[in-house]
Here is the input.
Amino acid sequence: MVTGADVAVVGDAQVALDVIRHVTTSPFVRDAFEYVALFVPTFVPLSFH
Here is the structure.
């Protein structure tokens, strides 16, 4: 299993979307499977005290 780093979508860094990407490979299967999901936080960080 190969796991890459989080990638920010092109645009303004403060309002960029985080994308989680996983590539799964197996020595017994010829094809690689790639799973891409949009990371949606459950709350806005630092918005409450």
